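Now for one record.
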Amino acid sequence: MGQDPEKFREDLYSLEEAGFAPPPEDEWPPLYDELPYEAQEAMRLFYILPVKIDGMAGYTGKDLSVLDTFFTVYDVPVESRKCILDLLIMIINKSVHSAHEKAKAEAKKRDK
């Protein structure tokens, strides 16, 4: 899902100390607690949901069958669940796409 914003900011300061110009601060990724509630919940669920792996395709996403249980356990308001689910699906799709692209690149490198 991308680099941790805290680590990203630390890296930018290191670049600056080394004489490189970092991007303007308004282009830096937000910190986790700066994100809207729904985005924070979607990220948290992404990291705790079980992974789905297929023998042929590899990583195929997350197991959403336990999602309702997590919504209940974490007291997620009913009115926020659709937005959180939409964000979660976007995160999952991006992670699946990234994993498949990485696997393709590794296979191509291996086949050379």
